[in-house]
Amino acid sequence: MDNKRVVLASRPAGWVSEDNFRLEAAPLPKPAEGEVLVKNLWLSLDPYMRGRMSDAKSYVKGVDIGEVMVGQTVGEVVESRNERFKQGDHVLTQLGWQLFGSTKEATPVDGTRAPLSYYLGCLGMPGMTAYFGLKEIGQPKAGETLVVSAASGAVGSVVGQLAKSWGARAVGIAGGREKCDYVRRSLGFDACVDYKAGNLYRDLKEACPKGVDVLFENVGGEILDTLLRLMNPFSRIVICGLIAEYNATEPYGYKNLRSVLVNRIRMQGMIVFDWRQRYGEALKALGAMHAQGKLKYRESVLEGLENAPRGLISLLKGGNFGKQLVKLA
Amino acid sequence: MDNKRVVLASRPAGWVSEDNFRLEAAPLPKPAEGEVLVKNLWLSLDPYMRGRMSDAKSYVKGVDIGEVMVGQTVGEVVESRNERFKQGDHVLTQLGWQLFGSTKEATPVDGTRAPLSYYLGCLGMPGMTAYFGLKEIGQPKAGETLVVSAASGAVGSVVGQLAKSWGARAVGIAGGREKCDYVRRSLGFDACVDYKAGNLYRDLKEACPKGVDVLFENVGGEILDTLLRLMNPFSRIVICGLIAEYNATEPYGYKNLRSVLVNRIRMQGMIVFDWRQRYGEALKALGAMHAQGKLKYRESVLEGLENAPRGLISLLKGGNFGKQLVKLA
Hints:
2 copies of one chain form a homodimer. The first copy, chain A, is α/β, with parallel strands linked by helices. Chain A folds into 2 domains: 3-121 and 298-327, Medium-chain alcohol dehydrogenases, catalytic domain (Quinone Oxidoreductase, Chain A, domain 1, Alpha-Beta Complex), CATH 3.90.180; 125-273, NAD(P)-binding Rossmann-like Domain (Rossmann fold), CATH 3.40.50. Helices cover 26% and strands 25% of the residues of chain A. Chain A has helices at 48-52, 125-138, 154-165, 177-186, 200-207, 222-227, 243-246, 258-262, 279-291, 308-316; strands spanning 3-8, 21-26, 36-44, 73-80, 90-93, 100-103, 107-108, 145-149, 169-174, 191-194, 212-217, 231-239, 266-269, 299-303, 323-327. In chain A, strands 3, 4, 5, 6, 7, 14 and 15 form a 7-stranded mixed β-sheet that branches. In chain A, helix 2 (125-138) packs across helix 3 and helix 2 packs across helix 9. The radius of gyration of chain A is 20 Å and the shape is globular. The mean pLDDT of chain A is 95. The interface between A and B is medium-sized, with 34 and 34 residues.
């Protein structure tokens, strides 16, 4: 068994490039007492990884140069020195961009209830992000209008379906007609606006004739600034991601913040880790929706660790269509 | 008894000028059944008035051209056709920029407990704004650091003193050394930063060595954008006013909104009218502080209705020092 890993070779200025990564051979780790040696099967690629490549202050420390890129993985236990696990068990870990890793921090996952990769998506961190952001901050009520950006993505697709299940009207924003069709037809959103069509304000206004009560923001930049003009009194904005800013060398200048005052908007930033004590609650709710066939979900799969850098770059440019994964084995 | 009033003559583009107002003679109103005829003694000048001069969408309709400028007043009942009031009673009303007015909407005020003008300031709308914004949104805890802009003003001075009384550290922002000295020495804030000194970020950082847990924002623009860089995880921002933007022809572009995500900030807009059902609670709390000599307060008084336009213009430029009032009689 040969191990391979992708490390951070240099920090990007603006857009990430493949030069920022280095694929290298690595020794097969030996599990210490209490650890399991895991063969990673699936690697999740997520927008937050862009932040970790930078050394700017953020909510967690960035990746050091030469260090393995961070990431959540689902894998199979190949050797266990932890009594909670045996060989062949499937686990969710934070082993990052590598084929094998050794860890104490593993969570069992059940591949008979849902495909293993789902625990990196609609039943994993993205799904829980949607669940807690909506339940704790967005709080859509029946009849209200919710807008979610990056609506065809791992978080956005769950946000809209959850909001619909709670009786709200769900409007998505996505890039291009194909994604918008998917959001409306397959995910069942009430409407979807193509931000690439060039009429963002007009199209959003038309899709939200009663204004916007909840905005679940994954993108930021012009999308957020435009939506500020459409928010209703006492509306809520969940700031979950600002992917439009991650690669910009200059931060976006938001011009419509006055709407927060005029409309008494509550805008709140969120990071799913803040609810880690309640992951069980979210998994139960999302698992039930999945079991009933009410949680539509789409994956975008690349094969091979060597393609992970390309996958992340594409994701940051909106090139993925559905949850971006790398199949490692 | 001759009546006079100031009406809106034209809408300002950018800064307000005296040309936007017109002083005119007016008939003495006749109170209808249920109304009182009030001789206004004090007129309050407040930043929100700038918004009413514009026809941009806001939380309430603007003043029409030719209409009396809006404003809160304290006055004396000269004729009553309402059984709740008799001649000589003091009342708080919304009669606006005029010497006499007739209204059904009057609230009795007690001039023996505090000077009548205080019901337009620390015991009035500005005091209540401070109370509800802090209690319901800012929620400073003992030991936390609160920053308030326009700290020597009617709202800001109460915000800092309330926060101190709840055990928080209070840091003010004001324009010029004289105001800053007043905020520290007379109001008892722990520190005050002079935004005109040209080192806003550095001075705020020095005044808030543990970062900022609550920002009570009355000004906006560069002050808010700078403070976004200093906010702590799970901090709160009360958006009470954005006076820096009211006269700008181009809105300010906020560049540090990413801090809302990284630090999971809760930012919320507020308008005191939303708590009108609970004014009694606020008046009780603030009245008790005043009675104990724990609510320091300063007024900036202009004499004569004809000076109200000049007073508002000065207020919008930060020229007032303490609560801006016009003494009408």
